[in-house]
Amino acid sequence: MELKENRYSHVILNRVVTDPYSVNGGKRENKADSTNSRGSSLYHCLFRKPKMSDIYVARSIASRWPELSGKKNWEDLLHPLDLDLRRYLIHYFQRAGAAGDAFNGTKASRGYALSLFLADEYFARVGLEIGNPHRYEVTNFIYATTDSDEAAYIGYVAVATDEGKAVLGRRDILVSWRGTMTKAEWADDTDLYLTSAKELFENYGALALVHSGFLSIYTGTIPDSPYAKTSARDQVRKAIQELVDKYQNEEVSITVAGHSLGAALATLNAMDIAANGWNKPTGNSNKAFMVTAFPAASPRVGDNIFKGVFEILKDLRNLHLLRIVNSTDPIPKVPWLGGIYTHVGEELEIDTTKSSYLKSNVNPHNLEVYEHGIAGFQENGEFKLEEEIDFDNPVVNKYSDGLQDEYKIPDNWWNKEKFKNMVQMDDGH
User: Phi and psi for 34 in degrees, rounded to 5?
Assistant: First the structure.
């Protein structure tokens, strides 16, 4: 994003915020909603020719994707952090962030707690199409429940288009989970009691215990809800199985990404997919596509038996997980509960306190701060934004006032009417 005056009316599209409120986001309110928690959208509409760096990145990721997705458990890629892996992680965290960007947080709206945007315009409206070669299309929205019997949009399932497949090197099926947004979800976050995950892992660890609140959001249903008659788990299962069957004769991957609460759900979901064979085409149990999870800022999810289940699935079911942790973020350190809870998978730790771009009081849990850290944290403890990454640094202020004032980027610009004149340029920034 670049700070521009909105005087270029011939290249700026001022799109009206829509308020979809059917299950598939079918109806719209044809009026601007300047009070909406995500604001109205302003996008630069010029197209550009690809730069040579774009072509190199596309070729590099297309050829290296199994390695970047953890086929060798990220051996020799983390220390120092591989340049392509930096790009790869930022790409997936942008997709995880989109799940939150599209959340309708205006309680007065008929579409409260649903997606602001329809599936066919989703990535354009959250700013992930212009200048972005990683093309996906949303196939399904995911709705979850809480212990308070509230249903809310919590993520989406998407699949790489033919254009996206050429850049990514395969047909990527993406499941993206957002972080906590509602009071009911906050309440479930604090439900620290451990409960049986037998329904997820019966064949691998019937005694595994997981966080009660996370499991409730993942498996809960509301019979009379138009959105959550089936659980988030079953919605994802059905969507993934349809896509796996549809593209079974291609090279396919399943990638699950999430932030905070979404990271915990991504962990459960990726393990569930692998444990129950949703990565296998119907009737072809000998073919299992790679499943990779990229949780950012994840709290601990389960106990040591749960961790043992993960190790079995990693070895037997083509499952891989890389957790990204910011050193001063408190969320990955909880819950503790006397040491009963534990993490799973590989860990990549970054330290954004080393960044001279950020204010000292920036929230280390912020997803855009994580992306900034991935773009610039160095093995020697220094911080340098890699020029080849071409990271869009103003996104740090999307939901915060984290950038130093000298950079002249408005704070919390995603939430405000007209994005405080922040305009997306034709290179995606």
Answer: -70, -15
Q: What is the pLDDT of residues 183-201, one digit of tens each?
A: 999 999 999 999 999 999 9
- Residue 414, CA distances (Å) to 214, 250, 325, 328 in order: 28, 38, 24, 25
| Residue carrying structure tokens 């005087």 | 7
- Provide the whole-model pTM: 0.86
CB 135 within 8 A of CB 160: yes
How far apart are alpha carbons 214 and 225 in whole angstroms?
Answer: 20
Residue 386 banded pLDDT, cuts 50, 70, 90: confident
Q: If you search the block for the tokens 């972005």, which residue do you land on?
A: 132
State how far the Cα of 302 lies from the Cα of 310, in Å rounded to an integer.
10
DSSP for residue 169: S
* Cβ-proximal residues to 33 (8 Å cutoff; 6+ apart), any chain: 16, 17, 19, 40, 106, 109
Q: Which residues are catalytic?
A: 260, 329, 365
Q: Is 253 helix (H, G, I), strand (E, B) or coil?
A: strand
Residue of 26, 258, 255, 31 lying closest to 119 (CA atoms): 26
**Among the listed residues 285, 299, 284, the one whose alpha carbon sits nearest the alpha carbon of residue 329:** 299
Q: Is the dihedral of CA 180, 367, 264, 178 positive or negative?
A: positive
DSSP code for 324: E
Question: Tokens 């220390």 label which residue?
Answer: 79
> What are the DSSP E strand ranges found in 185-289?
194-196, 209-211, 252-259
pLDDT in tens, 41-73: 333 222 333 444 454 455 689 999 999 999 999
Do the beta carbons of residue 326 and residue 352 sit within 8 Å? yes
pLDDT at position 42, please? 31
- Reported confidence tier of residue 19, pLDDT bands at 50, 70, 90: very low
